[in-house]
Write a structure and sequence with these properties.
The complex is a heterodimer. Chain A has 5 domains: 4-114, Ubiquitin-like (UB roll); 122-134 and 147-295, Alpha-Beta Plaits; 304-378 and 565-728, Rossmann fold, CATH 3.40.50.740; 383-559, Dimethylsulfoxide Reductase, domain 2 (3-Layer(aba) Sandwich); 813-911, Barwin-like endoglucanases. In chain A, 27% of the residues lie in helices and 19% in strands. Chain A has 29 helices and 37 strands. A 7-stranded mixed beta sheet of chain A has the order 16-15-27-26-25-17-18, with helices on both faces. In chain A, strands 1, 2, 3, 4, 5 and 6 form a 6-stranded mixed beta sheet that branches. Chain A has a 6-stranded mixed β-barrel with strand order 32-36-33-35-34-37. In chain A, helix 2 packs across helix 3 and helix 12 crosses helix 16 (505-517). Chain B has helices at 23-28, 33-41, 44-54, 66-71, 95-102, 104-118, 132-147, 178-185, 214-232, 265-272, 307-312, 331-345, 351-368, 376-387, 394-419; strands at 81-86, 122-127, 163-168, 209-213, 242-249, 255-260, 283-287, 321-326. In chain B, helix 3 (44-54) crosses helix 6 (104-118) and helix 13 runs parallel beside helix 15. Chain B is α/β, with parallel strands linked by helices. Chain B has 3 domains: 13-232, Rossmann fold (3-Layer(aba) Sandwich); 242-326, Roll (Ubiquitin-like (UB roll)), CATH 3.10.20; 331-419, NADH-ubiquinone oxidoreductase 51kDa subunit, iron-sulphur binding domain (de novo design (two linked rop proteins), Up-down Bundle). In chain B, the strands form 2 sheets. A 4-stranded parallel beta sheet of chain B has the order 3-2-1-4, sandwiched between helices. The chains are: A alpha/beta, B alpha/beta. At the A-B interface, helix 2 of A face helix 12, helix 13 and helix 14 of B. Chain B: It comes from Herpetosiphon geysericola. Chain B: Its EC number is 7.1.1.-. Chain B: NDH-1 shuttles electrons from NADH, via FMN and iron-sulfur (Fe-S) centers, to quinones in the respiratory chain. Chain B: Belongs to the complex I 51 kDa subunit family.
Chain lengths: 913, 422
Amino acid sequence: MPDMVTLTIDGQTVSVPKGTLVVEAARQVENLIPVFCYHPKMAPVGMCRMCVVKVGTPKMDPATRQPVVDADGKSVIAMMPRLQTACTTPVSEGMVVVTQDSEVEHAQRGVLEALLTSHPLDCPVCDKGGECPLQNLTMGWGPGKTRFDYNDKVHFEKPVPLGDLIYLDRERCILCARCVRFQDEIAGDPVLGFYNRGRAWHIISQSDPEFDSKFSGNTTDICPVGALTSADFRFKARVWELQPIPTVCNHCSVGCNMTFDTRSNDIKRVMPRENDAVNEIWLCDRGRFGHHFNTSKQRLTTPLVRKAGKLQEATWEEALSIVAQQLDGIRSTTGGKAIGGLAGTSLANEDLYAFQRFFRETLGSANIDHRSGSALDLPLDDAGAQYGIRSGTDLSTLGKGTVVLVFGADPEEEAPVHLLRIRGINTRGGSVITLNGRPTKLDSIAKHALRYKYGSESAILAALLKPLLDSTPADGKRATLRGFNDLVAALKGFNLDEQASGISADKLNTVAELINSAENLVIFYGRDALTAGASVPAGLANLLVMTRKAGATNSGLISLLKGANARGALDLGVRPDRGPNYAALSNAGLDAKQMLSAAREGKLKALYVAGVDPVGDNPAAAESLKKLGLLVVQELFLTETAKLADVVLPVLSVAEREGTYTNAERRVQRFRQAIRPTINARPDWQILQALANQLVSEAVLSAAGGDKSRKQTRREEDKARVRSEWTYASPAEILMDIQANVAGYKGVSYASLQGPTGQWGRQANENYYFDGTSYQNTGGLGVQLPAAVETSSIQTLQPFSVSTPASVADRPWTLVGATFLYDDGALLTDTDLLNNRKAKAVVALNPVDADKLGVKNGERVTVSSGRGSLSLPVHRTKLAPEGVVVVPVGVNNVGLVSVVEGGATPVAIRREA
Amino acid sequence: MPKTEIKEHIVMRNRDIENIRDLDVYLANGGYAMAKQALTSMTPAAIIDEVKKSGLRGRGGAGFPTGVKWSFVPKELNPKYLVVNADESEPGTFNNHEIIDENPHQLLEGIVISAFAIGANVAYIYIRGEFAYGARFLEQKIAEARERGLIGKNLFGSGYDVEIYVHRGAGAYICGEETALLESLEGKIGQPRLKPPFPAVAGLYAKPTVVNNVETLTNVPRIIEKGADWFRSFGTEKSPGTKAVSISGHVKNPGNYEIPLGITIREFIFDWAGGMRDPNLPLKFIIPGGASSNWLTEEHLDLPMTWDDMAAAGTMLGSGAMVVLDTSVPVVRAALKVDEFFKHESCGKCSPCREGTHFLVKVWERIDEGHGRVGDIELLADVGKQMLGKCFCPLGDSSVSAVNSAIKFFRPELDAAIDAQH
């Protein structure tokens, strides 16, 4: 319990932790002191002067240093001669605050009158109208009319674009600096600033391109006037006509809580919903602006069936019966093993569970995966669930005592809102360590920003683990660590090759000490780490175990997997080797790569693809798919894969249906239906249910042909596999099934996901624009699943070994495929606003290396590995370390997929003539 | 009463010794001997103690005891900085200017001693951008002193290093406010910082920093040389020493004077500055300590010029900038000019100052132009009340001085200016 301080505010006694600001203490007793510049997520600045109040403190006798008391024994209060800003004044014991009297009101009225002398009062055409703190506070605290009757308001050119996404109306700006401070303090992109002074003082962008930040949209939420508006929402609707529907962002694994604000069955804007345990009140620009795919004209609108070599529109009945009959045909002739299924990571938990049931139970096939079978697929990550961040962890509360280790990850690009949360931990006194192969933005705040050489990841981890092993006493402690001796054996004789790894052993000893002495240890790892071999996630898990933080409060791994629901896909067994809840299987099926090979060899007859695009990810996959007897694609869009399909089944998007996702921190969260579908599409689970039921129905069985006894046997087999006919009426019922059958999801239901709501001190009486226009969370905060290690008494060290990559003489460079936030993925379809920010199809090359090769910006190079080569223009940048070339993943026409071998790949580079 | 004589100048020694701006002349008159003595035979604590004993108060305007300010600097936090406020931009002030141009080495010696006292190895002179000559001149003087081993590494074999850099401001009055000065020195927009933390704890680059005025530091070598008691032989008990004061306006002999603190305003105007310029135009009012100070009138002529006496009279000694105005000056025009200055210089950071100064000017303007309205005086007073004490820094408050002074002393004239239109 922190030291508490008791004070009175307008006669009401309140106790708050030491250090609390008067404005926050007042909120606790539902006393709203008006503010403009103050924001609870940022350091106070006291600029707008709106929150001035009277403050007094107990008078002290200078001789005795004791409070002076009056005849009644009460402390005499010495009122400060001037009004004080409640946002910059910390509470003190015995303080007396007066927020409502004529003097305070007079001053506050003055501030509002002052602000309005420069404000255009164009509320009728202002997007902020209706949710504007300036409007609201003027109604509550302002003068009814101004004494400043000049036609002399500040005039600026009406909105100027600050980059592609945000418009700035300088006339409306009241110069509270919230946006500038957000960019400086929270986003860490100090791209906004001020220019000039006095009344001419105004906001400018200081970056090229303008407003170069992935978090710019947040400034429109916290702007207390309509000075900053988004290009996406400008003039789209009046806010009071909008209906905010709670949803969850499906662009990455953070799972930001947000709303689709709809009017007339159309999404007008996306807004954050506060959830401190996930996104606080922030969104990244991809999440905020990338909603247009939902309403894209390019969506599939009706089932398609291939007739005479062409995809043609069909009814659902026709399409489904073709699929059912063909699948049944293959099932009865070659058995389930000739059928494969891919279900992607943007599908809901309910779809994924239904998918694996459909395969394992209905079709009797273990060939399922959530990946596309390309060389850029990530390995299956179990560590993130077994050693995942402990349930109940709220990163927004962590600070002093917490060490965040970012290993082989670029949170800004892979899971942007995590960047804000890591920065927040740092701001609150925690430490950040980055261990990466290339520079990332977090390096600037990191206590240790260390750069390893690609290929040495396991050696780096060994160097971190070794001192921890050595310092573990040979007593009972070792006995509680299963695998201790194996790890000792694996590290026997290990010595860090500082030259090859790029980091000194001393430095790593310091880091090991820091993480060992930390109270909490949070480890983020991303694409670079995941593709660096199984020993990397294992080594990270071992770090947790060896520092006694596996399963410990506020500690654990956060795996930045690709896709909103990759964790859900892994949890629910959409993978060939394990069933739901990571249950071991006696017979593993084929993974995506194996399925493509099997198809090429003619062993796989049918492939059922839902939300995955193998051909889009790797054009070479087309050859395999063309060999199939049946290709079914269940999709939003006519993807490259869908173009080859025999049957295409259109699905509803995240905005048109409901479901749940499991995020990187294993929080299950619910999204709702925001708009009514206007197309002839169905939710994924419904399609699977219809097929599952057809496949066990008499009609299909009898149509399958064959002799009667065989049919009878088959029906018996089906009955044994299929518990019953599927009768899910809604995703809620599938989740009930999941929680009954998947141990990790026990207790997760739509009811439990619904609550609790309302968080950090929003008061019932509060003008909800106090901290911006993000919505209060009424849709539920979700449920965080426990990590496996939390429930086991014995801790197991994971098998770990140090690998040293063999250097390839004629391929001295290292090629790295990097995730960029703005890629060519289907979820950005029709979000043209972000086009200019999309990663370009270029090879990033260090200027020193580029000089060595004699290439200028834009000149082409050929990059060749043992597998193949690609040809791209060069972009000279220090973001590529010397000796490393970086090529974006998920960008069209890059050819990366035919060059990489797993993770970092040795390549040769040649300047093209 | 006869004019008080001053035995010798403390800071404007150029008035006693010709060409003291030249290093050789300065050295011949004992220059840098005190720096040597301080660095080689005194402890920082002893220097701070001597300055404390002398009762030296900050000459920039606030009059805070210099030795006490130095002792606030936490010992354990390093590096520390000494910043010299040479932004001299208060309208009517031009005495630092003379020290810089005519007695620069005494300032530099004061910087060396003071930096040593607070444990700073780097000192920045933040000089008003318009003083281009002064800035170049100081750089030249620093170079000369460095050449002779008087500034730089291992001074006088003491092992102590001090570097002095000159930084020119960019023309903003607010940068005379110490935290805005620090922001500007760091390369940011010149706007005041929220306090606490105070500069002594987290100043330049968030390190412990002492910000002292030019004149304050120029006193230091003489205090070390002659001792606190000698220093106290000038001035009064609570305001010891002398003060360089700039007087301008309708006096016979405007200019800089180094006065012993405690002489009356009457003596200063009439005996030192030669009295009113035109015998037919008597004194109307005095802006005693720069444009931000509350005005005084004839009834205050016997007020002693000390920090405390001026404060008791509701105004301030300020930076030592007295503007004397005779009856030819219309009050409305004077107030308008003062407030136009503050409107022009308002940094824009806080709402009441940014918009309030503009509002005040608009109302003064209409009165001045003959379009005053009934109730305008009350309006000015009310807007002033909404600004006074509610702004982020003292600049906003300063603009209210003219409003309140004009109303306090010249209400009938203001009313007449409005009534004339009705």
